[in-house]
Amino acid sequence: MKTLRITRSFERTRQIADFVPVKAACEVSVELSEEELNAIPYGAGETSDERAREMFSEKLDIFVRAEVEKTLMGYKPVCVRCGGTEGSFGKGGLTKEGLCQNCNTEIGYQARDHAADVGRNSETPARGTKGRSAT
Ligand SMILES: [Zn+2]
């Protein structure tokens, strides 16, 4: 039994934040039986296969593209640390590390505290630095 299979696929990557790409892909196919193919009216100089491809290709194309766009548009950026979405962290958006403004600020404080600790603990200046010499 002869069948004709028409497949269309579409794939797109959307950059949610600087380093947060989201890829969506969709594939769809139709399979027409010989009976269905025979039912398709086709003109002179073309076969029922060609006519069927022409009829379905564009529709399938539009369908897969729309599905991909729907998926990408529905994707909300999520903070990689607290999992908050735009609703919970406000309109500030995510940093390029994928952090919301709250987490970015918190981590900033922690980093500064840590740097302060390191500063306190290192009594000896690093080699090559010109410290004030005791006279
Ligand atoms: Zn966060």
Q: Please, could you describe this protein's structure?
A:
The radius of gyration is 30 Å and the shape is rod-shaped. With about 140 residues, the protein is of the alpha+beta class. It has a two-stranded antiparallel sheet with strand order 1-2. The mean pLDDT is about 80. It starts with a strand and ends in a 14-residue tail after the last helix. It contains four helices and two strands. The structure holds zinc ion.
Features:
43% helix; binds zinc ion; 135 residues; two-stranded antiparallel sheet; alpha+beta; 4 helices
> Average pLDDT across residues?
82
**H/E series:** EEHHHH
Using the alpha-carbon principal axes, give the shape: rod-shaped
Helix content: 40-55%
Main beta-sheet strand count, sense and barrel state: 2 strands, antiparallel
Which regions contain 5 or more consecutive residues with pLDDT less than 50? none
- How large is the count of helical segments? 4
Count of extended strands: 2
- End-to-end separation: 100 Å
* Ligand names: zinc ion
| Cα radius of gyration in angstroms | 30 Å
Q: Strands across the major sheet, in which order?
A: 1-2
| Residue share in β-strands | 15-25%
From the helix content, strand content and strand pairing, which structural class follows? alpha+beta
